[in-house]
Amino acid sequence: MQPEISVIMPVYNASKYLREAIESVLNQTYKEFELIILNDCSTDNSAEIIIEYAKKDSRIQFVNQDINIGPSLLRNLGIEKSKGKFIALLDADDIALPTRFEKQRQILLENDQIGLCGSWYTLFGEGMENRVIKTIPNPELVKILFLDNNNIGNSTVMLKKEILGELRFDLNYVPVEDYELWSRLILKTNFYNIPESLVLYRWHETNITQTKKENTEKSLKKIKANQFKLLDIEVNDSNYEIFKDVFELKLKNDSNNVLQVIAAGNLIIEKNKIKNIYNQALLEEYIEKVAIKSLRKAKNCNFHYYKNIQKEKHLIKKIPFIKRISFLFICLFRGC
Q1: pLDDT digits over 281-312, tens only?
Q2: Strands 190-202, 114-124: pairing kind
Q3: 93 touches 202 (CB < 8 A)
Q4: Measured between alpha carbons, how far is 13 from 173 in angstroms, rounded to an integer?
Q5: Cis before 71? omega within 30
C-alpha cells in the first residue's frame, strides 16, 4: 500500500535517544506512513538500532551514508526517496506525541490553501522544567513574522509534497537552512500552526561555538535581506539592525534610532501596498504596535524628539490620551 505520509528522520550519533524517537512515530494513531531513517555515518550504535527496528516493521526504510553529509542534505535525500503525499520531519532526539500525524493530516486535507502545518511544541531536557513554545496559528501573521524570524518548529513540520516542488534545503544557509527554505515556501502557500503541543523538543545544554554564532548571524541577514528584496527594499550591514527593530521591540533604544526604525516601518508598509505580498491591515497593525511601544520607551528623549514623533500622526492617534500627556512630560522635564 502506498504510504500517505513520509516521515524523514536524519540520524547522527543519536543512539541515546533514537529508540524514543522511532517508537514515537510507530505509536502514532495514524498508521499509513513510511519512516525513512537516514544514518549519517554514525560512529555509535545508531545503525544497529535502526536495523533492529527495520526488521520488525516494514514501514521503516533504512538509508545508510558512507560519508557524513549533514542533516540538510540527508533531509533532501529523504525528500527524493519519499513516496507519500505528505512529508513529516522529526529529529532523532525529539518525540512526536501520538495524535500528531492524525491532526496535521486532517488540517492539510481539509484546507487547500494550507501547504505546511506545524504545531506548538514542548521544550524538555535534563535539569529543566518543560516549557510549551506557542507558535502563531494565524497564517497571514505567520507570513509577516517570517520577516523577523522562523515561526515554525522544524520537528513539527508536515507539508504537502506537491507544494514543495523543487525547493530543497540550501547548505549556504546552515545552520538556519530550515528558516531559509520556509521563507521561500511561504511565498507559495499558507502555513498554519496547530495551537496544541504535538512534539517534545529535546533541549541540549551544548556550547555554541563562535564560528556557528557568526554563521548563524550571516545567514539570518541574508534570509531577511532576500525577503525585503521582494518589497524592493535593500537591506545590508548598514541598515540591518534598523529593519530588524521594526519587528522586534527594543526598550531604551536611542531616540535617533527609534526615528529611523519608524521610517523603516513606514517604508515597508508603503512598499507592501504596491507589492501586496503581506496582509496590509495585519502588517500595519503589527509594525505600528511595536513602533508605539518603542517610541514611548526610548532613551535620550527631548523636545526635538517629541516634535519629530508628532509628525507620525498615524502612531500618535493610537496612543491613549493620558499616555500621550505622560510622554510629553517625560520629553520636556525628565528625559529617558
Answers
A1: 999 999 999 999 998 888 888 888 888 898 99
A2: parallel
A3: yes
A4: 23
A5: no
Q: What is the distance between the alpha carbons of residues 89 and 201, in angstroms, rounded to a whole number?
A: 12
Q: Tell me how far apart the alpha carbons of residues 302 and 305 are, in angstroms, rounded to a whole number.
A: 5
Which cell goes with 44? Answer: 555509535
> Going by C-beta distance under 8 Å and a sequence separation of 6 or more, which residues neighbour residue 36?
6, 7, 8, 9, 61, 63, 78, 81, 82
**Distance of alpha carbon 168 from alpha carbon 139, whole angstroms:** 22
Average pLDDT over residues 202-206: 76
Task: Please give the backbone phi and psi of residue 200, each rounded to the nearest 5 degrees, phi first.
Answer: -100, 115
Residue 177 in grid coordinates: 537552512
Residue 228 · residue 220 · CB < 8 Å: no
- Sequence length of the chain is 336
Cα 109 from Cα 96, distance rounded (Å): 20
pLDDT value at residue 306? 84
Tell me if 193 sits within 8 A of 118, measured CB to CB.
yes
